[in-house]
Amino acid sequence: MKTETTIQGLSASLSPARSARKIIGFVPTMGNLHEGHLNLVREACQLCDMVVVSIFVNPIQFGPNEDFENYPRTLEQDSRALADVGCDVLFAPTVEQMYGNQPNFTNIHVSEISEDLCGLQRPGHFDGVAVVVTKLFNIVQPNFAFFGQKDYQQLAVIRQFVRDLNIPLEVIGVPITRAEDGLALSSRNGYLSEEQRQSAPTIFSSLKAAEAQLHSGRDLLAVLDTIRQTLTQSGFVVDYVEARSPDLQKISEFNQDVVLFIAAKLGNTRLIDNLHVKHTA
Fold first, then answer.
1. Domains of the chain: which residue ranges?
2. How far is Cα 252 from Cα 210, in angstroms, rounded to an integer?
3. This prediction's pTM
4. Annotation says 37 is catalytic
């Protein structure tokens, strides 16, 4: 596996593959990799001739009270893990390499779908994601890009601006990777205390219980209230429990497929999860 830290170096590494018209897959990450990230790479290896992974902790997607400075940087460990699963090129640029020394005046804002759910709690977050992902797409120029469905709203935002801006690639959503107890894998799980880690799977178990209740005919809004109560009683501070259509439109009845979304804090750690519940006539 090659490691490149500059845009020029990455371009040189990818030039032979581009000339040979090889299929390039791309997995953007912020590092501190877990099995969820590695499953994205494995999926890319299945579909593509060459796989590029970026590790870049993007400052412009963090809010003023978030954890940019403390976000774990584990490049050496991540590099070994990527080599083991078949990554061909690791792109690990500096902030200066990505943004230069001059102010950046260009913003990318996807209206509506980026403005509620996590967008309400983290204003500007998805704009920062959209800018850095667009820059990375332009630098790597992949045929396919792979993202986890745990960040469902982020995936929807990326798909939207890829369509709107005619970026010539296909975005692939990969199912959530979970621990044995159901907790969605996340780099932020490492912030949980041992006691909090024991409570954290309540998020997924409440989603699965909600799925069963919906299929038994219980009212959607009542099901959402039950999730909130369950989480609160288990020590969570709930940011939101919401139901959306698969394209993120608000719905109040279970008369179509629904995606249930949760964002909640245990201590200072904010966890998110979602579950797509199929509607059967």
1. 2-174, 187-273
2. 14
3. 0.96
4. yes
CA distances (Å), origin 135, targets 7, 65, 128, 276: 11, 25, 11, 30
| Class level of CATH domain 187-273 | alpha beta
**Chain-centroid distance, C-alpha 27:** 11
Q: pLDDT exceeding 90 applies to what percent of the chain?
A: 93
CATH fold group of domain 2-174: Rossmann fold (3.40.50)
- Averaged over 44-58, what is the pLDDT? 98
- What proportions of the chain, in percent to the nearest 5, are helix, strand and coil? 45, 20, 35
Q: Are strands 258-266 and 269-277 parallel, antiparallel or unpaired?
A: antiparallel
Rounded mean pLDDT, 195-224: 98
d(CA 254, CA 246): 12
**In which band, very low, low, confident or very high, does the pLDDT at 68 lie, cut at 50, 70 and 90?**
confident
Catalytic entry in 34, 37, 215, 276: 37
- Residue 71: per-residue pLDDT: 86
CA-to-CA distance for 105 and 242, rounded, in angstroms? 34
